[in-house]
Amino acid sequence: MSDATQTLAKNYSQLFIGGEWVSPSTDSKIEIRSPHDQSVTGSAVLAEKADIDTAVDAAYTALKSGPWGKMTPEKRQAIIEHFVELHDAQVNEFAGLITSENGSPIWFTGMLQGLLKLQTESFLRAAKNVEWEIRQPTYTGEKVIRREPAGVVAAIIPWNVPQQSALIKIIPAMLAGCTVVLKPTPATALDSLALGELFKAAGLPDGVLNIVPAGREIGEYLISHPKVDKITFTGSTVAGKKIAAIAGSQMKRVSMELGGKAAAILLKDADIAAAVESLKFGAFVNSGQSCLAKTRVLAPREKYEQIVTALSEMVSALSIGNPFNAGNFIGPMASQQQYEKVRNYIQIGIQEGARLVTGGPELPTGEDLKDGWYIKPTLFADVHNQMRIAREEIFGPVLVVIPYDNIEEAVMIANDSEYGLCAAVYSADKEAALEISRYIDAGSISINGAFLDFDSPFGGYKKSGIGREAGIYGIEEFTELKALTL
Ligand code: NAD
Question: C-alpha 356: how far from its chain's center?
């Protein structure tokens, strides 16, 4: 498994710890099954507590006595640059592997894997601008202010965009000089373990990155480990609260990227056709399994039926099927659990009295779909913001439309949510949209469907998270400040 240019492995019988492939302490493993037809596509071993101890010890040793801590930022950056070359040469292989793990449509995994080069290059640029050490006169003498590594990092990631979530944590952590124990979700263990091969080939010193797929209980053991200094977590708000409570009790540093229920406000002067086209991506990307999905459309009452009709045409035309067919915009849900959760929310919407415009609880038809976790893309209108389908994160292809009478009400509805990750505003007047964005409580706001920028901070207000990822902000999350007076 040492040649990084080989076809990516589909079966892992060992964990990546201390720069080596290590047999796990038990025979605990997972069969990876295709969400499209339930066929077995791979397998991976799972870490237990003893393996976490070994992985944290390896990260601790690499931090305290390995070459990583003594390397200049430039030398660390050179290793990451080498990793980018190796990783980018395998965009298509990784896209296929992730589609086989979580059923994300191949058009999406291909696009996202391609963008990861830009994400990592953004961190490399930012690292050159971090003031790692400044030396200045004081009234009485001299001072030095240093940014030092936060220590051993536990990085915990979800299944929906697994490798993007991994790299947006481990790259800035390593650029800051930290060492990392990465815990992916079992179902998407393969694409994380494959990173071990690439980082080893790029020359990363032993123990700087350790990869230990495991479930929740072992995740809790990892974050509670006394030698872990910093926790970086992406996942649900429910799990985030639990992890933050543990971190709080141990005074550990924590960054949290959690759930969302983003509002998309269409102003009266918005180009409806363009807004609806942008919401095809904005709401249904990754089959709706996206933290940034704009799942609450706020429509001005005077244009309401026109907007509902345009959305209905868009949603009912979404192609659904085998995620490996690039023509299918929507694939299956990633797991049976996710499938049942989303179907349940569709029933809840009907029971709450929302108008089912298109989609619904019936299974989509098609020979190809009968064994997969497929949900019909669904649109609910006449929704009010107190309904559960407007308040809770569904994480599937379900969009709701809520009418509003004036812009103050639109902003009030947008903010009447426990979440605050993303939002969108559509208007012919860009400056008016910018002005309204001042009053929206969300970390990232897209005007007229513009895509995210990798150099900008990403993270949530309210229960959508703590801290920011991406750019220089993402690197600083993995540092401690030390002040010296001379
Ligand atoms: P999840 O919270 O169930 O699990 C995420 C990860 O945390 C998994 O690796 C899981 O094993 C681990 N985990 C869960 N409970 C834990 C605990 N108590 N201690 C330690 N580890 C624990 O989430 P999921 O279903 O895998 O992912 C979907 C969620 O992730 C959605 O809410 C989505 O919005 C969110 N998400 C957020 C972002 C973001 O950037 N804000 C990005 C992607 C996904």
Answer: 30
